[in-house]
Amino acid sequence: MKILLIGCGKMGGAMLRQWINHDGNAFTVADPAATDLPEGITHVTKATSLPSAEFDVIVIAIKPQMIADLLPDYIPALKPGGCFVSIAAGCSIETLIGIVGKAAIIRVMPNLAAMVGLGVSGLYANPACTKQQVSDVTAFIAQTGRCVPLGSEDEIDRLTAVSGSGPGYVFEIMRSYVEAAKRLGFDEETSRALVFDTITGTVETARQSDASLEDLRNSVTSKNGTTQAGLDELRRDGKLDALLNDTVQAAYRRAAELK
Ligand SMILES: NC(=O)C1=CN([C@@H]2O[C@H](COP(=O)(O)OP(=O)(O)OC[C@H]3O[C@@H](n4cnc5c(N)ncnc54)[C@H](O)[C@@H]3O)[C@@H](O)[C@H]2O)C=CC1
Ligand SMILES: O=C(O)[C@@H]1CCC=N1
């Protein structure tokens, strides 16, 4: 497929890093600020430099607030029968149709772990998409990690709040955990190694186990031992559940505001 990527910043750039490792697609990046693009990528800084009716897929990877202003200039670059793929948070298919007219549109919500091929994306296609388009785009997105088909745009917004924004929450928890390790007297390098390896090892243990997360937690927790002492603090007053619940609810509400 011939793919046009509009916006090659943090998320578009992360996905492109994986896409270029796979054969079969040719990429053009449209971004006035993109630098250090991988070899073999065509780069333009404005829509008027693009040929007409050239691309099978146009990936929209600019900020949601810029789409209404910028996207109209890119419409002629799509081949008849091509489709738009938007990774923008919130921005609904109805809004996109208001900008590009009736079209095949697929909303995808990736996350930053796409950068290392361990992303998780949700995908929702509007009825104008052909089966072939949905299967081609699903395979294309799966080059960056897991791709979960979804049945509604509301599910895209809910997935955004869990896994789209998720790396932001996890990085923040990791930062705080590393700081706590440093306050116990470990240097930065050792603190990062202890925290990163603990998280990686714990995730892999959970993946390879049939036990519930509660049972796995209990398997670490000796009665009146060290873990129990730590968990009593972490879970005091039920605040951890409330905090994480409030976190995903706030992100979900924001996705709805960005419609
Ligand atoms: N950063 C993340 O973890 C995720 C971001 N997203 C979505 O991805 C989209 C992009 O977000 P980020 O990559 O984080 O933002 P970013 O600011 O890193 O990237 C946006 C890119 O758009 C470019 N741009 C600005 N004006 C342009 C123009 N006239 N034509 C073409 N490109 C132009 C900028 O130079 C920049 O490289 C957003 O819609 C966001 O909702 C979705 C999932 C995760
Ligand atoms: O924060 C945002 O709006 C984007 C969407 C999901 C992650 N980053």
Automatic annotation (TrEMBL):
Q: What are the binding positions for NADP(+) in this chain? A: I6, G7, C8, G9, K10, M11, A61, I62, K63, P64
UniProt GO cellular component terms: cytoplasm
EC number(s): the record gives: 1.5.1.2
Q: Which residues form the signal peptide?
A: none
Supply the alphabetized keyword list: Amino-acid biosynthesis, Cytoplasm, NADP, Oxidoreductase, Proline biosynthesis
Q: Which GO terms describe its molecular function?
A: pyrroline-5-carboxylate reductase activity
- Give any single GO term for biological process: L-proline biosynthetic process
Q: Where is the Pyrroline-5-carboxylate reductase catalytic N-terminal domain?
A: 2-90
Q: Which InterPro entries match?
A: 6-PGluconate_DH-like_C_sf, NAD(P)-bd_dom_sf, P5C_Rdtase_cat_N, P5CR_dimer, Pyrroline-COOH_reductase
Q: In which pathway does it act?
A: Amino-acid biosynthesis; L-proline biosynthesis; L-proline from L-glutamate 5-semialdehyde: step 1/1
Top-level lineage group: Bacteria
Q: Give all residue intervals belonging to the Pyrroline-5-carboxylate reductase dimerisation domain.
A: 153-258
Please list the reactions this protein catalyses. L-proline + NAD(+) = (S)-1-pyrroline-5-carboxylate + NADH + 2 H(+); L-proline + NADP(+) = (S)-1-pyrroline-5-carboxylate + NADPH + 2 H(+)
Q: What class of enzyme is it?
A: oxidoreductase
Q: What compartments host this protein?
A: Cytoplasm
**What's the stated role of this polypeptide?**
Catalyzes the reduction of 1-pyrroline-5-carboxylate (PCA) to L-proline.
Membership in a protein family? Belongs to the pyrroline-5-carboxylate reductase family.
- What is the protein name given in its UniProt record? Pyrroline-5-carboxylate reductase
Gene encoding this chain?
A: proC
